[in-house]
Structures are given as structure tokens and as C-alpha cells.
Amino acid sequence: MNQLKNFTKGFIKENPVFALFLGLCPTLGVTTTAINGMGMGLATTFVLLMANIVVSLIKNFIPDKVRIPSFIVIIASFVTIVELTMQAYLPDLFEALGLFIPLIVVNCVVLGRAEAFASKNNLLSSAVDGLGMGLGFTFALTLLGAVREILGSGSIFGLKFIEGDGMLIFILSPGAFIALGYLIVIINKLSKKGA
Amino acid sequence: MEYIIIIISAIFVNNIVLNKFLGICPFIGVSGKIETATGMSGAVLFVMTIATLVTYLIQNYILIPFGIGFMQTITFILVIATLVQLVEIILKKVSPSLYQALGIFLPLITTNCAVLGVAIMAGQQDLNLMESIVFAIANSIGFGLALILFSGLREHLELAEVPGPMKGVPIAFIVAGLLAMAFMGFAGIV
Questions:
Q1: Is B19's CB within 8 Å of A80's CB?
Q2: Phi, psi of A174 (to 5 degrees)
Q3: What's the predicted TM-score (pTM) here?
Q4: Which of A121-130, B80-89, B101-110, B120-129 has the lowest mean pLDDT?
Q5: Which of A116, A169, B56, B102 could join B43 via S-S bond, C-beta 3.0 to 4.6 A?
Q6: pLDDT at A195
């Protein structure tokens, strides 16, 4: 399989958020600023990459019937590693992401890739797929976070470029739904899907 | 009084879907028809209450006394996954009619982050056993309320004329945003 294509498919064509609508809870929950979105995306990328690697290594030893529970244990272990590491070295980000760090465990993107891709492919393809999907997810979260931060507080990555406050609604919960809705509209329009 | 505050806060003010963004996948996925939305809400009520009860007991009688709180994520998700299977098997034997109604939604619940989220939140807020159960029931009612309201809106959207690229999920998100805006009106009553 063409590794480059395998790597880039997660960005637009099979983007977990914009095309597959997976992992929407953290997408909406943590993207109040671009930096939070990016932190969450990178944490998920790490879990996705490691889980894909381990699953593809041990796929021949796991009986088919206990496949899903085993995948969940593997994913949960890596989530715990991320959780503890972040708590120790990035306490501010850990505070901002809060509940959504342990919830990476139930992010359908991670389990979905382990089940649909890593359990059927070799080590290299699985690692590349995990990394590509993870970076696609990070891209989506950073983009949504940037849009909400620009509209909501007039800054980007914490750098303020207008005086005063922005449209507060984009920082609050309704803005998350509306901003994501319009981003998907724009992407659909650009890729001519359903147009 | 404590309980009333927990209930009103969980259903209206801090609605689990529209304010805390938990359980968005089923919120978008199964909200096409009011009937399936009702079924899903029932299944969530059932599993969330039992899961919160069991994880409360595990947290306070196993994890904390033995000082292994860092195992929380792994234990909770395994307990929930097992519980869902158990509920499915028991329901099939005990009440086939209820199983018929909820059956197809049960396996989906394992990956519903609302269940794990509520179990973790109940622990974080230092609720006691009774409060945790009330918290779980109130949150699942909040989930059901948002889901059923939204599915009613989406049934009407089916008939509306929507521009091409907005069809389906994008317009659903924008409508969900408007619904969330309506729920913001409840802010401040608790």
C-alpha cells in the first residue's frame, strides 16, 4: 500500500471530524482556544499511534471474541500514561482539558482505527495510519479552536489583535455547534460534496 | 433541597449534551426519529444509573483504600463495558419486551462518553452514594430531554429545503447550536 496516501488520507478525505463525524465530544468540548484544541489533538494522536502499534503487534495472539475488551484495555493504559504525564509536566493544559483527558478512552476515533485498521494491517501501515489520523484530528481541533478564539475573544494562540472582547457566544457552548456546522459546510462546498 | 438543586442543575443549567458536550455521538447519530431517540434515552437512563452506582462502590471501597486511584480510567471503562454486556444478557432473559425496545442501543452505550463522564464527575464532585445516584438519573433525564427535543426538530428539518452543502449533519449542528442557546436561558436559576 502507498504509505504516503495512507498518511494523508486523514487530513481531508477521511478526516475523523469533518468527514467521518467521529470524536465529536472533545472536538466541541475543548476547542475554546486554538492551543487547547492542539493540546487535545496531540494527546489523542499519541494514544492513537501507540494503540495502533500495539494492536497491530499482538493482533495474532488475541482471540477474536475478547478482541474489543482487549483493545479497550490497551487504549486505557495509554490514556492513563498521557493523563499522568500531562498532570506532571503541563498542569495548566491538564486543568483546561479536564474531564476530556480520561474520556479519550471512549473517543470513537481511537477504537475505530484499532478495530478497522490496526487489527488487519502490518506494523508500519498501522503506525502511519495512526499518525495520519491523529494529525488530521489535531488539524480539525486546532482549526475549530482558532475560529472560535478569533471570533470569540479576538486573539489567536493567545495573541490579542483587537481591543476588548469578541462575540462571547463563540466561546460558550452554542458557538461550538454553530462554528463546527459552518466549517463542515465550507469543507463540503470546497470538496463539492452534496453541492 | 440538595437533591432538587442537583436535579435542576443537571437537567437544565449544565445540560450534559448541550453544555458539557458529552454524548454528542448518539446525539447526532440516533436523533433522526423521535422513536429511536426515546429508545436510546431509556437505555442510557438504565445503564448510566447502574454504572454510576457500581463505579461509586469500586472507587470508594477498592481504589481509594488501596491507594490505586490512577487505575480509575481503566477500571471504570472495563466495568462499564462488562456492565453493558451483563444488562443485555439479563434483560434478554427477564424482560424480552424491554430488550426488544432497548436491545440495539445497548452495545452502542459502551462508547457513549456520557456514561463514563458522569461516573467520573460524580467522583470529582465528592457526592455521596445517594447523591451520585440522583446525579446519574438527573443527567440521563437531561440527556433524554435534549435528544428527544432535538429529534423532534430534525424530523421537521427533513421537510425543510436546505442548501446543498448544508444538508444532513451541518444543519443539524447549527440547529443544535440554537437549541443550546435556548438552554442558556436557564443559566443562573441555580
A1: no
A2: -60, -35
A3: 0.85
A4: B101-110
A5: B102
A6: 43
